[in-house]
Fold each of these.
Amino acid sequence: MDSAVLSPTSLILVAVINNPRDLEIARLLGWYRIPLRSAPKVIAVDYLAFYQTAAFGTEKWRIQYLASVNGHELTTRLELIQDEPEHPHAQHEYYKVQIGPLIRLENPILADQWRRITFFYTTGDHLLKAHSMHDLIVESEERQFLWQALRERANQTQRYTAEELPEFTIDPAVLAGLLGIQELDNAYSSYKSPPIQRFTKA
């Protein structure tokens, strides 16, 4: 991953890709959809990092691509996928997130022992250094600052919010939920990431 692509302070939403078709839509059409009913609190981030589920076969349970976020709008599934008018969610509301070209990571970020990933936030600094999903978890002392940055970004640019965003000082458990890392915290509570050699001699 070229550090020139994103900065350490970039706001990143880890987003789930459940099937290869959605990744092709992201690649060819430049958008990604998020159901409003299960959307994270803030959509106005700098990048999406795509977590590929078991549907991807040999490339499952990993983050292999990210893309810059260019904007978002609220629409329906039918407007997004017009060849499925009878789909049970056709009239449900979705965020359509406009994205830039997919950026392939030189080394994918693997899910290691926890694979039930949902939306969660991290930073460019964490992503640049990460070798596993555990490395993306923002430590407790940094979480208030990450939430403040997300909240300020939402107030500046986000037109659609499901509910009012909480203030800066928040109970740690509530904050972990807002950032989408509560389950990850629990899953990795007894897990220690192995030592990582980040650089090799030429």
Amino acid sequence: MFLFEILFFTCIISIAILLFKLKSYKLNADSFLKQFLNLQSQSTTDRTTYEDREQILHQTISGLRGILSEEQKIVKNKEIELKDKESELLKGIAEVQKNLDEEIETRRKTLSQKKSSEVRLGHIAETLAPFLDQFDFDPENCSFLGKPIDYISFDDDAVTLIEVKSGNSQLSSKQRNIRDLVKNNKVNWKEIRIK
């Protein structure tokens, strides 16, 4: 009987421990259930927040695509406009170049005509020089050479080489050389007899 009482007492203590553990498990299960429900609620909230954010991002991306499309259209229009302006400018440059070439040709012809008229005027001045007031020599004593010196005057006391110039014309290099030879007294006399 004593053994029975010990066994009975051990059973009661085991049942009490089991009840205590069951109560503890029940508290833990309730706590776990609450945590699970909280997590599920938070997950639903997070999912809703995520879906809201995802929707906002999709709207933003769609808006940005629209803006990008509009900007690309604007850029293409500007590109076409710039190509048109470039074409117009190139045509303008070609026209200005053509006008410049024509003007250069006109000026070249004018300059050539001016030089030609100056040469003709010079020839006329050379021919008429003995009859002008500025000519200090007796025309009867002068002989026309033309090149490289216009006249030579044979006066009683001197022989003079005369070059007639008009306007701003200058002596040629050959004429300058002849002038320098005369100034340096490098003029010679040579008599040639032909039999």
Amino acid sequence: MPNAKRATVTESALVVIDLANDFVYAGGVIADAGGPEYQQRAQSILPALSRLITAARTAGVTVVYTTDAHQAGDSELAKWPPHSMKGTPQAAIVPTLAPKPGDLVIEKRTYSPFVSSDVDAELRSRGIRRLYITGLHTDCCARHTSGDAFQRGYDLVWISDAMQAFTDEAHRQGLEYFKAWYASDPARQVRTTDEVIAEWTATAAGRPERRIAHQTVTGAKANV
């Protein structure tokens, strides 16, 4: 993807990965597997994500939610117990980060939405060239999503304080993996919430708000 570093805010998307109830709150399969300490860690990024989502909508950055919506027989369920099953409350995005009109909601059945949805086509149809990666987990779904996006030529920015993993060590290792394998300019591509919001805010003044119908994208890649 040529000239990725010159992508404008309207050519950018904020990708919010697996902020479903199952991953965040007690009673969820993934959340309970991590235990209270993990649940606190997952919930600690909600304020930063809320700020980022609000700033993105204001600046004209597309907000993309990509969350597990598993079905019986999914390959991932051979390793993990059934979790975030499609159509259940546990698969719903946490209420504090609920999508609004103009956002894109992608239901995925694999670690990376690029494998089990038409997210790539949806992003390209909107002219998206840069992805700001956030959410859960730094060393798993965010890592696989980043790898697939990198291979497809997207410019990537990781918002370090808007991501988490089962442990702080896993989170740090995930960030180091991004730097080692995907980042061409780590100083530019690993940022904080405050830094990213400042950049978006500086370019938002005077731009008319985009109005795009809310859309949920489902289905395996082979079926789209």
